[in-house]
Amino acid sequence: MSLVIEENNSTGIVNVNAENILQEVIEASSEKAVIVQFWAPWCGPCKQLAPVLEKVCAKFKNIKLTKINIDENQEIAAQMRVQSVPTVFGFINGQPADGFAGAQPESAVMQFVEKLSEAAPGQADISGLLQSGTVALSENEPEKAMQAFQQALSLSPESPEAIAGFIRCLIALGEHKEAKAVLDQLDDDMQKKPIIKDVLAALAVAKKGAEVDSDKSDLEKKVQSNPKDLQARQDLAIALFASGQQTEAMLQLLESIKIDPSWNENMAQSQLLEFFTALGHTHPDVIKTRRKLSSYLFS
Fold first, then answer.
1. Which residues are designated catalytic?
2. I need a labelling partner for 134 at 20 to 30 A (CA). Which of 151, 152, 226, 239 fits?
């Protein structure tokens, strides 16, 4: 019997059956990540999920989308232990790597497909470069960090982590206009990613720091001469953060909150939360500072 491959020319979706599953899923997953959607013509949620999957998968060159009609391929469904439809599996190197059941919102589907794309065969491993760049930034070495993130981008141009790191380097170097230009060039999906939103917050804080009239030394003298000058302490925190001294900046705001937590309608606390967003809520210094903030507010 001849091999049958039905492919929708407009969507690129391959209809898989017992005759072509070896070639279209198992073998193909050694070159790309292959997504298999188990569906049925009578399934309402399948009809809801299908266009979402198509839309998301179309954004990734290393993802192949296929589907299996369970009414016509009951043996395959049984082998994969499909208990309900829609059920979706992602295959990498011949093995199921991830999956989900039921209709999902686009954000959840995007997260699922992104994870598969990052693990797809042939995908460049840039984790070491990302780590090197992040460490260099934390040590206030933006030029060194820039080299690492640029190299990561050359290997994986669509990596949100590499893009975010590159923009953070521009911010650290004071190139705010250039950072804004890069952000503006990103498509809507990329701009909605949490890591990119954090970078946007970092840029906003950096711009605010550039607007502080006095330099850090003048502000430090003001705070030293009058520790209860909370406006000077607030300006100093912003200036410190903008210059890459994030830990010192957050300590200044914690001290302000310790002195008067309600000063100027909780301004110090609000600014601290902006710092958290700019750094990212998983940043080690953010986690430590958040604990201290809780002890000050709820002790």
1. 43, 46
2. 239
- The DSSP secondary structure of 219-247, one letter per residue, reads HHHHHHH-TT-HHHHHHHHHHHHHTT-HH
123-127: Cβ within 8 A, 24+ apart: 123/62, 123/156, 124/155, 124/156, 126/151, 126/152, 126/155, 126/156, 126/159, 126/161, 126/162
Residue 194: band (very low, low, confident or very high) from pLDDT cuts 50, 70, 90: confident
Considering all CA atoms of the chain, what is the largest pairwise distance in Å, rounded to the nearest integer?
Answer: 90
* Pairwise CA distance, residues 38 & 82, whole Å: 8
Mind listing the pLDDT tens digit for each residue in 143-158? Answer: 999 999 999 998 888 8
Q: What pLDDT is recorded for position 299?
A: 60
* Contact between 239 and 217 (Cβ < 8 Å): no
Does residue 127 or residue 27 have the better pLDDT?
Answer: 27
Where does residue 77 fall: left (phi above 0), alpha (psi -120 to 50 degrees), or beta otherwise? alpha
pLDDT of residue 8: 37
Angle, helices 284-298/246-259, rounded to nearest 10 degrees: 0
Judged by DSSP in three states, 16 sits in coil
Contact 79, 89 (CB under 8 A): no
Helices (H) and strands (E) in the chain, counts: 15, 6
Confidence of residue 10 (pLDDT cuts 50, 70, 90): very low
3-state secondary structure (DSSP) of residue 73: coil
